[in-house]
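Dear support,

We are seeing what looks like truncated structure output for some complexes. This example has two components. We would appreciate it if you could run it in full and send us the complete token output so we can diff it against ours.
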Amino acid sequence: MSDTAAADASHGHHPELGFLRTYIFSLDHKMIGRQFLFMGLLMIIVGGLLAMLVRWQLAWPETPVPGLNFIPEPYIYPGEQGGGIIPPQTYNALFTMHATIMIFFVVMPIMVGTFGNFLIPLMIGTGDMAFPKLNMLSFWVGAVATLVMLASFFVPGGPAAGGWTSYATLAARGQYTGVEWGQHLWIISLLILGISSLMGSINYITTIINMRAPGMSYFRMPLTVWSLFVTAILLLLALPVLTAALAMLLFDRVAGTSFFLPEGGGEPLLWQHMFWFFGHPEVYILVLPAMGVTSDILSTFSRKPIFGYHAMAFSMIAIAFLSWIVWGHHMFVSGMNPLLGTAFMMTTMVIAVPSAIKVFNWLGTLWGGSIRLASPMLFALGFVSNFLIGGLSGVFMASTPVDIFIHDTYYIVAHFHYVVAGIVFALFAAVYYWFPKMFGRTMNEGMAKIHFVLTYIFFNGAFFPMHFLGVGGHMRRIYNPMQYEFLMPMQHWNVFITISALLLGASQFLFLWNFVASLIAGKKAERNPWKANTLEWSAPTPPPHGNFEVQPVVYRGPYEYSSPEVKEDWLPQDKNLGASAAVRAH
Amino acid sequence: MLSWLPEDVSTYGHEIDSLFYLIYYITGATFILVTALMVIFLIKYREQPGRRATYSHGNTTLEIIWTIIPAVILIVLAFMSASSWAKIKRHVPNTDFELRIVAKQFNWEVSYPGPDKKLGTDDDIKFDNDLHVPVNKPIRLVMTATDVIHSFFIPNMRFKQDIVPGREIVGWFEATKAGKYELPCAELCGFGHSGMKGWLHVHTPEEYKKWADESLAPKAQ
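Here is the complete output from our reference environment:
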């Protein structure tokens, strides 16, 4: 049966839906996944432009940014040539919103929202999520949160300017930052987003536990599904803590409570404990799906089973568990008892072990493979390379004495960009890999490769020298490095970083062009263009509402590449080799 | 030994610096090893006609080795760090030189004891953003903040401590070299955060006495 015929046949079971029910208020997990993707890609443009402005100010402090004259004072001071100078208050808002948007409105919607929605039912071999209406609600609640966050740019006083961490007491009283409504909306938006993520995570967990295809045992699930499963559990447990903290912060601001304000008997450090109790699992919420996707792609393009499948799954579980007891490493010099710092250092050193296992196992996957450097593979390797650097630089911060010096410097900025901005490589890998399945068309491979080369070079050009700045003591979140004598000799690095960052931003037009052009006029995709084993590739391209023509039955794990049982170098999970072969595969 | 960090002028700075460089060598070697293997594998195991990938699901011995080695290294690092950390942050040496720092948007207010030789009384002598101390003497700092969290950072002294409103936080350092060192705020504290800075002046004992006689003596009528 051809794909089109299959799609028609499958549509036969569903009544034709109108435009609204198909594209806007869709209950189909794949459409909801696409909606999250478009939302995330729109927001990455906003977050990226904010970063460009931050970088402009750091390289060429208090000089006019071309083309910003349309923004009124006090957000932009008029420049002499019609450009605009970024004032300190606006600068603080820029980096606050850059981080907030990139973390909550780009990486989460795309890595968790898009790929969680699109892939979980397809990869475990079922027709849809357990709760399709909850799923739709999750997207639309997320969209409301996005709109509230964007609205904060347009209120008097501008958006939140207390850092994405919104430390009390700075963010707990309007007078300290000069931002009233911007910070209120920031809190309200994240409260709403928390509801969206909770609905999503409940759906993911329920679906994975209850709706796996016959034969799909937990240890036959692709690592992408494992990663999303663990992520969903982390989200479910971490978000209530953030929600509680945000509610308390909001009450401190508007209702006269003093949870975090010492003048009323409150404790500013309580905010940090609550925020990071959520915040550290959050880091893994962001990075685990990237690890899962990378594992799948490395295996597919090495034509080789993933090295140490069980170790990979268990190391994700270990990371998830340990992520609850490392939050204090954000607070070594915060004024909490130094003895507590020692305890958190120990747990932090321990969490590096499962991360190391993952990198070594990826390396083991490449060993002896038959490696094809297609664009998803290049980006997955880029993710490994960045995660390696980000993971290793984390060891410096884990050591409490070293952290005294590098805490709150550009060393930290370098570290978390290698980890969190490095996720963008996994994101691109995933988009290039699953685009044919998502949209039924292929992206331009040549352009994708150029996109990789430019992104990889300029990413490292932008973020690696930040280590040098940090080692020199360059504080983060400062408006003008030229105000400090000891930073002046390093200013050339700021210029270098900014130029790399601008080029990194410009390189993304290649992706944007490729994405949009392929959506409209890309070559029609075949069912299994990468010759991969997992179930989504057994479904028609693009999969119709309901996904599979017949309920797939799973006979083996997801990584049976180059198996001696078959002539081809791939062996799909649902391919029946006959009873005797199925027994042998165990 | 590398010398990337700014000049160290404190008694405990070498503890931080040597740990930094030790971790640098360990992580640097790991980075080179993993990256080299990755590049070698990508070249050696590239797709070639007629060759099939090795069908292998892993190697338990290898996995145990590369779990245990990093674990041992990291635990050793943790214990080394813990002893340095205790020296720097947990044990404040006895000293008769104590200063009070009040951090506020966007200044460091430094108080010296007045004629009654006691801190925290009305006759304290206060300076904005200038801290004068003698060399080779442990300095005890009692730090408070009046509005938001600030962070007292002296890069050359390897000193950084957040100052939290509502708390009295004690820190210390001992300078080994006279000179003038920059003292920025390292924690975002509002629109004036950038540029919130002062200077630490470390004097020889003679110079310090001269400065103290001029600046701390009770003003003649």
